[in-house]
Structure formats: structure tokens, C-alpha cells
Amino acid sequence: MLLLLGIIQLFGILRALGARVEVDWDVGYLNISRDGYSTWQAVGVNGRQPIAPVYVDEGDTLLLNVHNSLDKPVSLHSHGLFQRNATYYDGVGMVTECGIPPSESFTYVIDTGGQTGTFWIHGHYGSEVANGLRAPFIIREKAPAVQYDEDVLITLEDWLQMPYDSMGAEEEQLRFDHLFPNYPTVLINGIDGNRSQPIHFRPGKRYRLRVVSMSASYWFKFRLPGHKLEIVESDGI
């Protein structure tokens, strides 16, 4: 009987600790047009752009298995996570990490640490984030603080018309306004904002909008004319 109780208690503890969610990323180059105007060699995952969102539940541990198919190092940053006792996963190339060498693999073990909400994962080596290495990272609450009928993810990105690394010194200077570059395109849910599909809302329904600014440099202003928005969470707080 004591052994049975011990097993039941252990099972309860393991459930409380959450699951281990494995996600495989093969980071590589692909030629793509995301703005409908220019095609260039961007950075994607598993041969696609935009990169699929990563979803876990509260208390889960994310095992992000990363293989580097680029010709330069790769490192990743989980934007908004506290990284308690794991600052070596912070992702800053040649600061907290050396980066994953070309043709090598590495597994990030990301403890969500009791955090919930809307975050994103992005490259943190050189200009990888500007070239497309970024994806939403959603940690779903077991008991949401607010009730809603539907969950809607909206991503915002700044986008160039060539790889960031390809800009010459004169062109780069022309694109910069004070501290930030002048990006010619804003992507909404992965494509040019003027070409993105409308999001349909039904009267009488309450929607949770997960707005993620996956920007390399720009700050975005977001609003829905004629609607009142209530902020229920910002950077997981």
C-alpha cells in the first residue's frame, strides 16, 4: 500500500511539473519572396518561412533540437523568458554562447519556469533575426486570467528586400534613420501587410489577440479602429 501511495504521489508530482515537449529545427537557407516584390536568400526552419509557432503548456519544458545547416554559427534567444539558472541559453553569440557550428546540432532545454503568455524565439548571432530566423513561442495557461471565445495570433515583422549582410556601406547608411534602419516592408502573419488575409471577428464574441512584435529593429503601433482593446498581458506579465 505504501509503495502504491508513493507511485501515485510521484505521478502527481510529474504531472505538476509538466510535460517535455520536443521540437526539431533544421535551420537553413531558402530563396523566398515574403513581400511579393523581392526574392532573396533568407533563413528558415525545416525548409519553410514563416517559421511555425512553438506551443507548450504551463509548466512544460521545451526541448528545442536545433541542427545548423547554415555556413555560419547559429544561436537562439527565447525573448521574454527569465532563463533562471540557465543564462547560458540566452543566445547572444560569443557572449553567453559560442553558437552552434555549421553542420552541428544542439538541444536547448528551456524550462518555462512558471511563466505563461506570448513570447518569441529568434536568432541571436549576427543578422540572423533580420534575415528571418524568428518564430512565436506561446506558453498556454492552465487557467487563463480572462475568459475568451477564440485565440488569435498576430505577428508583426520588419522585412528588407535583400539579406541584411548584403547591404553595402552606402546603402546601409541610406536605410538608417538615427538608430534604426528604414525597412521597406511590414509583414503581418508572415506576408506583406497589404496582401495579408483579413481576420474575421463575429459580433458578440470575445477574442484574445496574441500580438507579437518579431522585429529586428522597428517598434510597431497596433490598433483596431473602432474597437476598444484591453491589455491583459505584456511579455508574460
Break the fold down into its secondary structure elements and pairings.
Layout: H1 2-17, E1 20-32, E2 40-45, E3 54-57, E4 61-68, E5 76-79, E6 105-111, E7 117-123, E8 134-140, E9 150-159, H2 169-175, E10 176-177, E11 180-181, E12 185-188, E13 191-192, E14 207-213
Protein model, in words:
The protein has 237 residues and is mainly beta. The protein is built from two helices and 14 strands. It has helices spanning 2-17, 169-175, and strands at residues 20-32, 40-45, 54-57, 61-68, 76-79, 105-111, 117-123, 134-140, 150-159, 176-177, 180-181, 185-188, 191-192, 207-213. A hairpin with a 2-residue loop joins strand 12 and strand 13.
Structure keywords:
single chain; 237 residues; mainly beta; 4-stranded mixed β-sheet; 2 helices; 35% strand; disordered N terminus
In short:
With 237 residues, this protein is mainly β. It has helices at residues 2-17, 169-175, and strands at residues 20-32, 40-45, 54-57, 61-68, 76-79, 105-111, 117-123, 134-140, 150-159, 176-177, 180-181, 185-188, 191-192, 207-213.
